[in-house]
Amino acid sequence: MEGLRVKLHSNQRTRFVISNLTVAILNGVVWGLIMALIALGLNMIFGLLHIINMAHGALYMLGAVVAWYFIELTGSFWIALIIAPLCVGVIGLIIERGLIRKIEDKPIITIICTFGVMLAVQQLVLMIFGGSPRRIAPPIAYRFPIFTLQYPLMRIMIALISIGLMSGLWIFLRKTKYGLWMRAVVQDREMAVGLGIPVNKVYMWTFVLGSALAAFSGVLAAPIVSVEFMMGREVLIMAFIIVIVGGMGNLEGSVLAAIIISLIQGVGSLFAPPSVATIFALGFMIIVLLIRPQGLFGE
Amino acid sequence: MEKKSKKKVGILKKEISRRAFIKTTALGTAGLGLSSWLTVPFTYGAEPPIKIGMFQENTVFATEYGYWMAKVGKAAIAKLNAEGGIAGRKVELFDYDTKANPAWAAGMFKKMILEDKVDMIMGSVHSGVHNACFPLAKEYKIPFFGGGSMTYDYTGKDSLSLHGGYYIRCHTHARSQAVAGWKFGFDNLGKKWTFLVADYAWGHSLAREFGGRVVAAGGKAQNVFAPPTTADFIPYLQKVDPDTEVLFTAFLGSAGLGVLRQTVEVGLHKRLQRYTVICCTEGIGQEIVGKESIGAYYIEYHPRHLDQVPKELHPYEKAYRKACGVDDDGKEVGNPMVTIAGSHMYSMWIYPYMIKLGIEQTGWKDSKKNTDLIKAICSLKLKAGPWCPIGDLTMREEDHQGFSDFYISRVEPDLKLKVLERIPKEKAMYEPEVDLRKML
Fold it and tell me: How far is it, in rounded angstroms, from Cα B424 to Cα B405?
């Protein structure tokens, strides 16, 4: 009888461990796709234009804030998901035309100036939006069971939207004329100019697209993380890590890097303290860069 | 023919020489300076104003606290001056932002002492800021009144080495919260607890203080630490033991919202009770936290809603709320999106009054009597009144710690915090670990 009780207890523990591992892997993949989406816009600007945009986190935050106002106005998350990136894209246009274009060949000054933009945007949002976090209710509240836990369907939906958006971007870059122009400018700017490609316009629209993507990811992440003026700070560093580890300008590499880092952190925190799990993830980054300094799929 | 020299003529059509201009300007400046110096003493008596420095987190982090600390502090000083100041002296307030940056805050602390020449300083909820400013309070022997830092140690056994006895705290902290609140949770919610808390001093102290008491009473305590700015709590919620009955959480800002909501998202709320301190959602309306918070239990240090405040305190509470621009529902008047940090901001209302009482009792004139002033303040036993709307407040001389009542509340379906139990301050007291009376 005692042996049976021990066996039952052991089975329960095994079930608990399997359940936790399943959720950790699922959540790692899902969260990795969310992080890949956040890094996508940065990859466009950093990877293709070689501009270090320290304001990327601020644009991500701005997308969430603008979406919050639109949801308060219209009551619709989906309308906000379309409008907010357009609004932030316009802001990206202003930043590119008013600031970046003048300094794009000076990397250090670009870093400092975009850092200044980040601070200015944060303080402006603090003045208008306030310091308290606000919430955006998830548009889908359904949960499905996984062993002993439940998993929110909203996260799966965000992951699927991320995959769709990244696929769309891949098609845009590979199959459209504008995408071809963007790749040409990255390869050889002078040759692109010589071939009649409107390089300045390509830079401008790439920056706008990157800004809109940052905002789009902010709107999608907002139901999970809450909307506040400092929310961009948390994602900026991880976004840079993902872009570098994946390979600058390589979207597939970013997705893989984001999922691997997220999985290491998620599964690692099952067996070790969270700070140790983060160290594992950063250790992975260091090893990749030592072996392949250009990143996983970088050239 | 000689040319007539042209001389400059002023608006008075008189010739003005350079010497005359300089002489007139100097006399006029001296006259203005003398007149401003002469008028001030006669307005409030012959004494200069008492200068109080105030700093709080206006930017970067914990801004919802800083906003209300500043607002209430200014309202308190305005009321004090309207009632005649302190010992016939006007009170002048110097207000700064800590930026939640200990190094910057220490710079502001020093600036207030050396440039603004303040007589005492109050404010801040940030533990790092406190740690950075304690050595300065000790060095310059200036009374430092804590705004809302919850780390028990500041009035614990290391008080002397930390701040030399120059720190005074009238509000709660992790130990008094645990002493007051653990038994309600143990008796009514469950005996097996998991502490999912922020991985720094505040979170650790709550886990230690509450968990120690739960285990000593025969219960079980599991600790799960997560980074303070965690966005995704699922990896940590997975680690909660299957037999846990009470999930105690402690995070600030968006992480505080996230942990409450994600506990519901993974369905844990169906098999355990959620228990937390109000610090997690101070300055954040429950409608923003969301319906996921329904059923969660909070330890409050002063009720958010007027109708939950004990009836006998209503006359004082109404006047206090009116002075601070707060409505009956705990929202800023004219701006219902802004919710009060009601369990923290009262300290900034009470401190100026404690300073007034201390100065008038000791005859304090300047920093030479700071020690006597601190001793007088730390032996105060305040009764509920216009200056103490939270109810009776007892200061303890040994450790410079104040005690007032606690409230256990639960989030109702209408998203209001309903008080279930009032815990008298005597039940929040513990043995002091230091005796600062000997050192001052």
Answer: 5
- The domains found in chain B, sorted by start residue, are 50-172+345-404 (3.40.50.2300), 174-300+406-427 (3.40.50.2300)
What pLDDT is recorded for position B15?
64
What counts of helices (H) and strands (E) characterise chain A?
A: 13, 2
Least confident of A156-160, B182-186, B246-250, B358-362: A156-160
Q: Which of B66, B67, B235 sits opposite A24 (nearest CB)?
A: B235
Of B229, B268, B288, the CB nearest to A234: B229
Q: How many CB atoms lie within 10 A of CB A18?
A: 12
Residues of A in contact with B284 (CB under 8 A): 132-133
Q: Which residues of B388-413 are buried (b: 16+ CB within 10 A; e: fewer)?
A: bbbbbbbbbbbbbbbbbbbbbbbbee
Residue B55 φ then ψ, to 5°:
-140, 150
Residue A143: its chain B contacts at CB < 8 A? 265-267
DSSP, residue by residue, B190-207: -SEEEEEEESSHHHHHHH
Best of B97, B262, B266, B286 to disrupt the A interface (most A CBs within 10 Å) is B266
Residues 3-42 of A with CB under 8 A from B: 12, 16, 20, 23-24, 27, 31
Among A208, A218, A232, A203, residue whose Cα is nearest residue A89: A208
Q: Which two tokens stand for residue B224?
A: 């799960």
Q: Is the dihedral of CA B20, B23, B29, B30 positive or negative?
A: negative
Tell me how far apart the alpha carbons of residues A67 and A78 are, in angstroms, rounded to a whole number. 9
Q: How large is the ipTM?
A: 0.83
Q: Which amino acid is at B310?
A: P
Q: Which of B63, B71, B238, B281 to mutate to test the interface with A (most CBs of A within 10 A)?
A: B238
Looking at residue B1, its pLDDT comes to 44
Q: Is the pLDDT of residue B339 over 70?
A: yes
**Whether the Cβ atoms of residue B269 and residue A116 lie closer than 8 Å to each other:** no
Instruction: Locate the chain B residue with the closest alpha carbon to A274.
Output: B226
Structure tokens at A227: 């909307």
CA distance A178 to A169: 11
Shortest distance between the Cα of B13 and any Cα of chain A, in A, equals: 53
Name the closest residue on chain A to residue B266, using Cα atoms.
Answer: A150
- Is the predicted pLDDT of residue B440 greater than 70, yes or no? no
Query: Positive or negative CA dihedral for B396, B401, B405, B408?
Result: negative
Closest residue in A to B268 (Cα) is A149
Give the pLDDT of residue B9: 47
Cβ contact B236–A269 (<8 Å)? yes
With bands split at pLDDT 50, 70 and 90, how would you rate the model's confidence at B31?
Answer: low
pLDDT of residue B4: 45
Q: Considering chain A, what is the average pLDDT of its residues?
A: 87
Name the nearest CA neighbour of B299 among B281, B318, B272, B324: B281
Quote the pTM value: 0.84
